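Quick one: structure for this chain?
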Amino acid sequence: MRILLLTSEFAPVKGGIGTYAREIATAASDLGADVTLAAPDYGKDNASEDRLLPFEIRRFAAGLHSMRDLPAKTRLARRFIGEGRYDVVHAADWPFFIPLALSRRLTTARMLMSVHGTEINETQTALKRLAIRCAGVFGPRSEIAANSHYTAGLFRERFAVDAGRIHAIPLGVSDFWFGERKDRAETRAAYAIAPDRIVIATVARITRRKGHPAVLAALNMLPKAIRERVTWLVIGPDGEADHVKELKQLAASSDCDVRFLGQMADEAIRDIYGAADFFCLTGMHDPSGRVEGFGLVYLEAGATGLPSVATAIGGVTDAVLHGRSGMLAPPSVPDIAHAIARLAERPELRSTLAAGAIAHARALSWRRCAAETYGLPRPAAPATTARTRHVDVPVFQTQPASSP
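Got it. Here's what it folds into:
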């Protein structure tokens, strides 16, 4: 199978779309496909890094996407599609949807378009909807790959597309997160964390919709005996300056042990996961229309054996299985506090959910994602054990797919 993958975001720029494009291209190559990936060069020579990847990369002159780039991307898509005989042409993100649709007469290949969540709401302006309709973007040949069941439902609500052409294909987790990490005691000693502390890790950009203030408020609600034993490690770059300043002021006035570690390399994050007791990221509804289409970080933490406390919003319910790989709560401080307290008080519950988190991460591999997306031979399913059973935790009402 020959696949052409078009993406407007890729390394060296960091971002979710770039990760998706790299991982699905790598997995498809591992499964025997011949993959060509087209990506912007950001004005740099990326040849030495590109040669390390197991697929062909064709760079084009561009930077971060803007609407002004659509004519150039359309010409680019037409040229790339016209130069090769592909079985599948895949737009990894929305900036290539219109260029791919306008090139459909040049190929008989399957036409795939991946939707990730937020862009579905962002394309609801009158001008963008007009452009989508005039270009026939979601015409009868277009197949939609949604990164979660939530995203698939949101897309069905926003666009009148035959449900049979919309496929919910949850993302995968890189083998890296299952790899070796430093000894738990060694990592704790490096951060001056006592062996008996309950360590909670959060990895996310410190931005409003990620819900860091809700976690802090929940920690402040914990019984004193628990709160005094908790260390919360906050990892990730700063978002909105006023929001970050307010959060750090609130943390400084709290009696909780909160440590802001900033942005870290994946190797260091993996080590911290190995020294932590559970992961916590409690996203909140965002009035701007941004949504959590999936939540890859929960799978990355799960691959290291960390169960999660998460809020049941967006596609997080595909990334965290309530009662199996973690605990899902409504986006309210008392419910989040209750979930944190349950995991903090019950090491046997953490152990059972940890086994489930590893099993869930293994089941959602990138090879499985690539096989489902492209129709490649499916890899063998990982073995499961009795320890991945559902455990008795409160069942919360999850958000309907129609709520952004």
